[in-house]
Specification:
205 residues, alpha+beta, seven-stranded mixed β-sheet, 10 strands, globular
């Protein structure tokens, strides 16, 4: 029989939570609120280019995962932190914003679009999405997470309408594109881990 934990039980309960970083092979994933019309490549061409496609139960629309991208899966029991989905997403965004700041980039939030963006600059008059976020929770245990474009081949986004956003003033970007150099993925992962620990106030191994 399930019941809500009292405040005393919640604060005394200590779980071992997980933060998993992955690099996927080329794959498009479609969230439960997305439209398959946002996949612009035919199945035959997609299969010829060895790009997989899955419908999954996270929030959000369609996105791309692949080599050079850090896909992060926090598996957190939010009873340990706070039971607020919107706050959880804002915390993930903050971890990415802090990491970008270490590379001299100012990550921002856009009110109607989840994720982390860069503001328009002199050479690109568009907002540039550098990290997508899509989550799912079950009994306050988190699933799915974020996709942070580091050395990502952005050409793969040409086959989709990323996150279902059709605005002409918005596009996608990566750390490599912004800084004009290949990034050390291990270094970026290390910075992410430190920033997650700081924002969520946990110790890590």
């Amino acid at each position: 029989m399930w019941r809500d934990l009292s405040n005393e039980e919640r604060h005394s309960k200590r779980q071992t939570n997980q933060l998993i970083f992955c690099e996927h092979k080329h794959v498009y994933t479609l969230g439960k609120s997305g439209s398959e019309d946002h996949l612009l490549i035919s199945n035959s061409k997609r299969e010829a280019e060895e790009i997989e496609f899955y419908k999954i139960n996270r929030g959000g629309d369609i996105t791309y995962h692949g080599p050079g991208q850090i896909t992060g899966y926090p598996i957190f029991d939010l009873d340990e932190y706070f039971t607020d989905v919107h706050k959880y997403v804002r915390f993930i965004e903050e971890c990415i914003i802090l990491t970008l700041a270490e590379y001299g980039l100012a990550g921002i939030r856009l009110p109607k679009h989840t994720g982390v963006w860069l503001a328009p600059n002199e050479t690109d008059g568009r907002y540039r999405k550098i990290c997508a976020i899509g989550v799912h929770l079950s009994r306050w245990v988190t699933m799915h997470g974020f996709a942070f474009n580091v050395n990502t081949d952005l050409d793969y986004f040409d086959h989709i309408i990323p996150c279902g956003i059709v605005d002409e003033d918005k596009t996608v970007t990566s750390l490599r594109k912004e800084l004009a150099k290949e990034m050390n993925l291990d270094e970026v992962r290390s910075k992410l881990k430190i920033n997650f620990a700081a924002v969520f106030n946990f110790d890590y191994l």
